[in-house]
Amino acid sequence: MATIKMVDLENQHQRIKEEIDTAMLQVVHHAHFIQGEEVHIFAKLLSDFLNIKHVIPCGNGTDALQLALMALNLPKGSEVLVPSFSYIAAAEVVAMLGYKPVFIEADEKTFNLDASKIEQLVTEHTKAIIPVHLFGQGCNMLAILKLAQLYNLYVVEDNAQSLGADFYFPDNSVKKLGAIGHIGTTSFFPSKNLGCMGDGGAVFTNDDELAIKMKTIANHGQKEKYLHQQVGINSRLDTLQAAVLLVKLKYFSQYTSARQKAAAQYDQLLSAIPELEIPYRAENSSHVFHQYTLKVKGGNRDKLKQFLQETGIPSMVYYPKPIHQQEAYQAFYQQQPLEATETLAAEVLSLPMHTELDEAQIGFITKNIAHFFGR
Fold first, then answer.
1. How far apart are CA 139 and CA 189, in angstroms?
2. How far, in Å, CA of 187 to CA of 61, rounded?
3. Which residue, among 6, 122, 106, has the nearest Cα to 354 in the 3D structure?
4. Class for domain 252-372, per CATH?
5. Gyration radius of the chain over CA positions
6. Residue 354 CA neighbour count, 13 Å, CB half
7. What is the DSSP letter of 323?
8. Given the DSSP bridges, would you call strands 79-83 and 100-104 parallel, antiparallel or unpaired?
9. Which candidate, 73, 150, 159, 347, has a CA 20 to 30 Å from the CA of 305?
10. pLDDT in tens, 205-226
């Protein structure tokens, strides 16, 4: 049996190596390393996939969030609602731009923000909400959109972990996550479901005016060279990375299916262990399994993680310390109870999840987990 990896990019690459090599060599030959044709082709194909008008590639997922908030040009002192059980990027950008991150409680089932706890946080200063679609499935966008309309809030979707997932509306319409709010963002960090071979990201929107603003801001605030209409940044997806993404985009549906198949096998082999809770599937969202995240009950999470490590099985805790408990964000925390968030931080454990997992590896992983619990 091959060595088990948390993310196996090496073997994924080997399957498409010739295509990747050809694509990158083409960039080397034409030498348009910045804003080459591949960048524009990729943006068009991704917009078709998401069924959204505008995709603007950029340097990374954090830049994408920054571009989105800069384009919205919120008033000074604005409050932006963000989940505390999440990666730091959304809160980081809010704080960096001089706004106030306000932390939302987590939903213990889905790991996403608890939409029922949003309204109590809204004040006259609240101007936007950033739902982070965590681990591969969507937040309750129906409830979020209703509240956003009621309180005139912008919705910026952080879709770095759930690209390709669908959200199902009560009228039977379906939209891709990231293409529902005012702006969507994503990351092409190598370990993402659609990852490049370095840093990369994108913003998307159906709003023509916001698209122009984000494209301008990403290019030093200029629509024409040396004519700067606003303060901007320098954030571009380079052509070599776009070439890689063009190849991987062809296989993206296959990659998603492989992850879903692996998750189903995990479910089958772990669901009978009472000390564990397998990932919950929200009724209104598909799940593309950026992570396969368990809840480990009885205070055994860290012991299980150590046992797996000793057995040669990697695992990760996403995220061991909520944002509201981080030193850098104490000034923003209003001491509202976030019990579910803190419980999740103590219980979650993510198992290996990638496109190259096979049945033997999953069988070995789950057999050892069962052994740990005396099954």
1. 21
2. 4
3. 6
4. alpha beta
5. 21
6. 20
7. G
8. parallel
9. 159
10. 999 999 999 999 999 999 889 9
